[in-house]
What we know:
The protein is of the alpha/beta class. It has two domains: 94 residues, Chorismate Mutase Domain, subunit A, CATH 1.20.59.10; 244 residues, TIM Barrel (Alpha-Beta Barrel). Helix content is 46%, strand content 11%. The relative contact order is 0.11. The mean pLDDT is 95.
Amino acid sequence: MEDNENTLKALRQEMSAANEDIMTQLNRFFSISNRIGMVKDRMGLPHFDPVRESEMLKEVLLKNRGPMPMHIMQRVFMEIFKASVEEMGAGTRRKLKVNRFPGQNSTVIDADGVIIGGARPVLIGGPCAVEYMDQLLTTATHLKSLGVHILRGGAFKPRTSPYSFQGLEETALKMLKEVAETLDMRVITEVMSPSDIGLIEQYADILQVGTRNMYNYPLLKELGKISKPVMLKRGFMATIDEFMLAAEYIYNGGNEQIILCERGIRTFETQTRNTLDISAIPILKMETPLPVIVDISHSLGRKDIVLPIAHAALAAGADGLMFESHFNPPMALCDAEQQLDLTEAENLVRYLKKFYEF
Length: 358
Ligand code: PEP
Ligand code: MN
């Protein structure tokens, strides 16, 4: 009895020492694999190399003399390899240029005197699409009187159906500029194709990338070369990491004036058009220095809950809100159900003014 207890105690001590050896060797392994990851980053090579991994596994198994069975040894090594590739990825995630480094000030964007990412939240409003002069002017005049300083309106519309209204293109751009100049507002409008950037730049103060184009890397690369701010909307199927990597494409081209826009992601929920990912707001604010805007129209697709959601978005740290508004929503050529009429827009802004200054 006494003997068994002593033996068990000794074996346990040996086991603890073995654990320490394993730990030391695992740390050695991870330090090597992180260095490999850095060299691969410099060479532009992927971290995961299935051929090299199976060679390493073969090497180990050939030398294994037991008593650990081959299949268990294989399982353990495969887990270690997998974890090391994940860790290499974590290293690069932290190294993005759009990541906030400790103590870094937030990016403040000056759109010709209208500040985004400053002390006060900013309001961006306007119709889904520019339709005709009276529609734009009537809507914009009312919004401006409420404290909306940035006018939105689609000139090039990314419609799901090719048979839906596609936008008035340059005619709409001209109307946006004229109305904005009359009312001292700034213009934001969507760009869908690299070949339209030059044209849109002549009329808009901020260029918007829509949700469908977040993965359009040739477009993002070209927007990296311009000197106007870009508002990048989150892809409706994109993770936050993919969203930040898309912003990195713009940043890499030299354009650091990027505004991130959370506009909801597609989930199984059907009560709202998309699911607004409220947690993305503080995460993006922590992980990047960039201003974050929340689109309360495309995320919800309905008007009856905009007040609490707008309030929640600002409370979560958003630097501003975007909403669609039309002086006569039932007659709107697109997104009629989510565009606020002038009274609804006024109610929204009045409600928010109880808590925030614009
Ligand atoms: C828009 O803001 O006009 C738009 C089409 O939004 P999203 O790209 O988020 O659908
Ligand atoms: Mn719309």
